[in-house]
Amino acid sequence: MPVDFAFSVMARQSDRCPAPWRRPFIRWIEGVEAGWAVPLLLLCFVVVWTLALSIAYVGSGLHPDVLETWTLGRHFSWGSVKHPPLMGWVTGAWSSIFPSTNWSLQLMAMSNAALALWLVDLISRQFVTGHKRLIVLLLLMLTPAYQFHAQRFNANAVLLVPWPLATYCYLRAFETRTALWAIAAGVTAALSMLGKYYSIFLVASFVLAAIAHPSRRAYFTTAAPWISVATGLIALSPHIFWLIKKGAPPFSYALAHAHTDLATSLREVASFLAGLAAAMSVPAITWAMIAGYRLRRLGHDFAALNAGLRLLLYIALGSIALPIVTAVVVGTDLPSLWALQGLFLFVVVAVCSTRYRIERFYTVNTTVLVACIAAVAVVIAAPIHALYRNSYGYQEGRTFYPEAANELTRLWRELTGVPLAVVDGNESLGFAVAFYSPDHPQYARAFAYQYGWKLPNKVAMERGWAALCFQDQIDCLAWMHRTALQAENVAFVRRVFTVQSDLLGLPGLKRNIVALMAVRRPCAPEALRAQNGMPTDETPASSDETQPILP
């Protein structure tokens, strides 16, 4: 007897007479159509993975991408130099309700992932009922997209929500062809574009899927597609106006990733496909074990896809094929993490296309697998990660962010007696000070010069300005030196201090940080300036004693 057939027999027997430990899971499965099973699964997902993140990063700062997103969200804008504005909007809205702390933004990231999964379930329930809906969600929880990718909340992670939302609205618009769903499809497609311009591949896949679909004539001869286009353009118009006004800086940033040679582009494509295959490997193996010998029916099931699933299949293929073609033709970078938000399309089609019954035995087993992985992450992996990072740190210096921010704030208040208004210098340290300092100063550097070393403007210097550099960061220290030489009407204090990571009292890695603080001359008494080595009225501002010295 084949092994997979034997498992199928065992599954049917288990469903007829489940073991006692399976019965609570079966009661939960039976609650899917009652409306409480999926919310309970997502609530547990948020709680467990927020706890895992809190443990894994205890004593460390948030990722610089998250801190950058928080910085962008402090002021409403229709765009930024690097990306469209959605990630800043989400973080700004969240921070208006919740405190600016590590656990708060980790909770935001996991809540965003849970909302994305709920939207995927909204799509699944158009085709299946009962525990097949759970299987879709559980398989997606076996990918890295909704935990490890989602926790770094940035322009990629923010797409986890608008992609399934736009897909659902487009699916309903294609099927019903009503004005209401057509408007919703246009607005949500625009929302995806406001998350990241990579979403153009989703929008283009909508168009190509409709053209390839057997019902294309019925769709394009109604007003629905044209209402969607018009609505989407109207929703995007404020951002388009902002692009025109500002000279479209995000496109300059995007073009910095383009114009590689063909060989490099082909390597990018191979890496892209390999990365997506790796991300889908665990759910694919799990699904193969669930389907077993019934995988032989895959071709028959796909041939018999209904109209909605066929549309989703075309969208899924387009979301992978179009970036590959673009990468080869234009010569762009193509990291696989840019496409993780679209993996749900393949899982929905694979599970919802099945025309056979799936035993609850497999759903319980998959639930236990997901729960075990989460438990291992909380109890074993997260503490080990925290211990390792406390001793070896991160390339960007995350273990030092809170301490560096607090030490700079202390030095500044000791020097001036007023809150720090503006912070500059090393990008990640600047974001960290803005977030972790009780003064929450503004990040000074224009994002257009985020990767260069443009000198700060006079207004920023006179408001109360400080900058941080790691002592081994030569380019940052050279920028500090040029800043001190060109400044007028301000006096400088340079300090070097050591920060050390700390994990619940366990000392870890050390690193030196250089601080440069600028104070308006009328605000700095002569004795204080002389005491701190700052230029007095009798000391020229370019005096060697007052300037930062390169190592």
Describe the structure.
Helix content is 60%, strand content 7%. The protein is built from 24 helices and five strands. The protein has a five-stranded mixed β-sheet with strand order 2-1-3-5-4. The relative contact order is 0.10.
Please render the helix and strand layout as text:
Layout: H1 3-16, H2 23-29, H3 37-56, H4 64-72, H5 86-95, H6 102-124, H7 131-141, H8 145-149, H9 162-176, H10 179-195, H11 200-212, H12 216-220, H13 224-246, H14 249-255, H15 262-291, H16 298-303, H17 307-330, H18 344-352, H19 360-392, H20 401-416, E1 422-425, H21 427-436, E2 442-443, H22 458-464, E3 465-470, H23 474-486, E4 490-503, E5 506-520, H24 526-531
Parallel strand pairs: 1-2, 1-3
Antiparallel strand pairs: 3-5, 4-5
Helix pairs in contact: 3-6, 3-19, 4-5, 4-21, 6-7, 6-9, 7-18, 7-19, 9-10, 10-13, 11-17, 15-17, 17-18, 20-21
